[in-house]
Amino acid sequence: MKSNFHKPLVTHMYTADPSVHVFEGKLYIYPSHDLENDGLDDGKGDHFKMVDYHVFSMDDIGAQVVDHGQILHVKDVPWAESRMWDSECAYKNGKYYFYFPAYDKDGIFRIGVATSDTPVGPFKPEPSYIPESYSIDQAVFTDSDDKTYMYFGGLWGGQLEQWQTGKFVRFSGEPGADGPKGDEPAMGPRYAEMSDDMLTFKHTPKEIKILDENGEPIKASDNERRFFEAPCVYKYTNGKYYMIYSTGDTHYIVYAESDSPTGPFTYKGKVLEPVSGWTNHAYITEFKGKWLLFYHDCELSGGVTHLRNLKYTELEISPDGTIKTVTA
Ligand code: FUB
User: Fold this and answer.
1) Which of 173, 308, 149 is CA-nearest to residue 243?
2) 297 lines ligand 1 (CB under 6 A)
3) How far apart are CA 323 and CA 248, in angstroms?
4) pLDDT band at 2 (very low <50, low <70, confident <90, very high)
5) CB count in 10 Å sphere of residue 255
6) Whose CA is nearest to atom 2 of ligand 1?
7) Per-residue pLDDT, 162
8) Which residues of 86-111 are buried (b: 16+ CB within 10 A; e: fewer)?
9) Cα–Cα distance between 315 and 109 in angstroms, integer?
10) Tens digit of pLDDT for each residue in 125-162?
11) Does the structure show a pLDDT above 90 at 42?
12) Catalytic residue IDs
């Protein structure tokens, strides 16, 4: 089969922030949906106009991508106001759980969930967001012992810094509103084990620690290695856990390794070099014995940073888990 690696996967609309799963023997892709917008990039994401989600599927690697249509719109979610950013889907208990972040009516990012009997919806949103959820870029991983974890977090427009005290601090300059600096440990993504119903957390979210090769926390000033947004966790054939994430302002997708799904994770290297556009956001999925990297860039829009398109390629991963860096 002819591969469509490194080519825009969806061309009739702008798509970004992939999360990809194998359901019913096919690849199901849950991206976010970028709309045309005049808003300026103010560092808080005002240039992104995102109000709904579509789901796509591929029967096989290289196969045509099928758009199954809109599965959720912000107007259908009672608690949500705007900013339907990165989405995620999980299957458990015979149901599909679609997770999404959005601004609530107070302009605070929360994470919501909608359920369906099929991977293509219709998805019915819960009346409120997941209690104690905050920030953006949630990804879900179910371990071989059937425990499911949600990972999430994003700096700057993703508001993670504003939750350092455990409560939302609205304005920069107020104690606890701004992130660590210089030699202070960088902020890590958050995780929580999901309750059996997949609708709530079992505990207050905790921080994932990301360490360097000497076992020291990665520093806030280490912009090429510190966590910024888009965590995604998978377990490789060597039994170890890997978290990939975006370094944000340095535009890399990097990875870190752990013996446990809750960390600490040790930084290992780069997965993906910077792509066209500002954001870099990726997801790793195994399908038919191949490890696939889904990501986005701005090829279709000619480099407009808030109009992105999905792409994918096959990863080369050594038996010890080392990833050969991809140059898109
Ligand atoms: O799509 C909006 C935001 O841009 C996502 O939440 C980030 O990961 C970045 O891709």
Assistant:
1) 149
2) no
3) 20
4) low
5) 25
6) 85
7) 97
8) bbbbbbeeeebbbbbbbbbeeebbbb
9) 32
10) 999 999 999 999 999 999 999 999 999 999 999 999 99
11) no
12) 17, 229
pLDDT at residue number 22: 98
Q: Give residue-wise pLDDT tens across range 272-303.
A: 999 999 999 999 999 999 999 999 999 999 99
Whole-number Å distance, alpha carbon 7 to ligand 1 midpoint, is: 20
Q: What Rg do the C-alpha atoms of the chain give, in angstroms?
A: 18
CB 86 less than 6 A from any atom of ligand 1: yes
Minimal-distance CA residue to ligand 1 atom 9: 279
Model pLDDT, residue 212: 98
pTM (predicted TM-score): 0.97
Q: Which atom of ligand 1 is nearest to the CA of 101?
A: 6
Residue corresponding to tokens 């890590």: 188
Cβ atoms of 228 and 155 closer than 8 Å: yes
Distance separating alpha carbons of residues 98 and 123, to the nearest angstrom = 7
